[in-house]
Amino acid sequence: MNQPSPINSMQNQELILVLDFGSQYSQLIARRVRELGVYSELHPFNLSIDAIKERKPKAIILSGGPSSVYEEGSPHPVSEIFDLEIPVLGICYGLQVIAYRLGGEVNTSVKREYGPAELFIDDDADLFANLNEKGMTNVWMSHGDALTKLPINFERIAHSSNSPICAIRNKEKRIFGVQFHPEVVHTAKGKEIIGNYLFKIAGCQGGWNAGSFIERKSNEIRSTVGNQNVICALSGGVDSSVLAVLLHKAIGEQLYCIHINNGLMRKNESENVIKLYRDTYRFNLDYVDASDVFLDRLNGIIDPERKRKIIGETFIEIFEAEAKKIGRVSFLAQGTLYPDVIESTSFKGPSHTIKTHHNVGGLPEKMKLKLIEPFRELFKDEVRAVGKALGLPEEFIVRHPFPGPGLAVRILGDITKDKLIILREADDIFISELRKACLYEKIWQAFAVLLPVQTVGVMGDQRTYDNVIALRAVTSLDGMTADWAQIPPEVLAKISSRIVNEVRGVNRVVYDISSKPPSTIEWE
């Protein structure tokens, strides 16, 4: 099945191309550019020159990375990017790539730099303009190699105590490089530096926001669909809710929403979806109870990738059957997000895919319905901004992300109805207590996980041998990186007490204090 490229709909607006060399901060670069009102995309470092030219970027940013440019097999972009007559900015490893490819020298640093550093600005004419830092600013370093000789026709524009050449410029060709990371929050004026690159150097105008996205996507959807009907999976989560409202705005009665109860959703999910979208919004909404079908096919399945594949295949099968009942349906709309695409793609050559998202990699090779994925180019908080601009109630916009495979990837091991009941009740208690403590909206994502172990406990002077619930809560900007949420101990104590006392079959609650990376947010 051919997936649409995000760039297909972006050719008539400004684009900043970010080439990924493996840095943990690569997604942050794309995010920071978007926050400044300019559309950006993240692509592998070895994107072909023809593909680059096709996208017509206003400028290119080369990300950092863990490699050394002088080592055999290290990642390098196509050399033609330096001859496109558009600005190029190299960050950390990207700086070293520029220097190495254009005649400079890069060597192992005498003293490696990891963490905060003072950057002394030698020239504030362009990249470092208007920082109001009196010639010095705090930045974040992360490198073991350093530029030791400038490339031909380049000049130094900043240095640090440990890096005599910390920022460089070829003014005529508009090629810049910085040894530090302006995209991370630890760099005090990082956003301003990136803004200078976009607006002063690349000549961007900005204006990419939720309102412009809605107008452009509505027109695009109408043009694509014509007089055909579209079916949309309406689960009730943020992505599907915003998607349905956007589609309804664009094509009205041509939209048919289908809510499939797969038996893997949160407590009272189906009832709430039907009440809101059928009774209040008056959408064309079909309800399908397929819980027995999903659970039967998942019977005995333990491997998380198999779970995702089965759920994705069953999902499409049922949708195609429903489409036949509606008639004249050619399109299936999905709320696939940019992080789904990134995490389901090997961006650095033969590396391991983190997981297969069922909206991206779990679909069959031959699908009878054409896909519409309006949010394929958006991060999660950008979808929330679109929802707000569309007038959705705040309570739906701030809802935490919920995985496409549902509770199937929050039950470690095989899935049964009894386990689903336990997990739903525990999860509902967790979320309700976070709301009571006014913590829900401060947390990016929170949920309960049912572990495949049992432990000894004591209840009412009797020995128990019951299940363990793990609680997971993280703070994040976009889900690409995340820290565990530091929920007050008294709140955790209340949550644990309620779960153990109210959920039959649970005698122990633990709290996950892992960050992403190295862990993922979901357990499977």
3D structure, described in words:
Helices cover 31% and strands 24% of the residues. The protein has 524 residues and is an alpha/beta fold. It folds into 3 domains: 14-201, 3-Layer(aba) Sandwich (Rossmann fold); 210-397, Rossmann fold (3-Layer(aba) Sandwich); 410-511, GMP Synthetase, Chain A, domain 3 (2-Layer Sandwich). The strands form 3 sheets. It has a 9-stranded mixed beta sheet, with helices on both faces. Strands 12-11-10-13-14 form a 5-stranded parallel beta sheet, sandwiched between helices. Strands 15, 16, 17 and 18 form a 4-stranded mixed beta sheet that branches. It is globular and about 75 Å long.
Number of helices: 14
**CATH fold-level label of the largest domain:** Rossmann fold
Q: Strand content of the residues, in percent? A: 15-25%
Unreliable spans are 1-12, 346-366
The overall pLDDT average reads 87
| Strand tally | 18
Topology, please?
Layout: E1 16-20, H1 26-35, E2 40-44, H2 49-55, E3 59-62, E4 88-91, H3 93-101, E5 105-121, E6 136-149, E7 155-160, E8 167-170, E9 175-178, H4 190-201, H5 210-225, E10 229-233, H6 238-251, E11 255-261, H7 269-280, E12 285-289, H8 291-297, H9 304-326, E13 329-333, H10 338-343, E14 370-372, H11 380-389, H12 394-397, H13 417-436, E15 445-459, E16 462-475, E17 483-484, H14 489-502, E18 506-511
Parallel strand pairs: 1-2, 1-3, 3-4, 4-9, 10-11, 10-13, 11-12, 13-14, 16-18
Antiparallel strand pairs: 5-6, 5-7, 7-8, 8-9, 15-16, 16-17
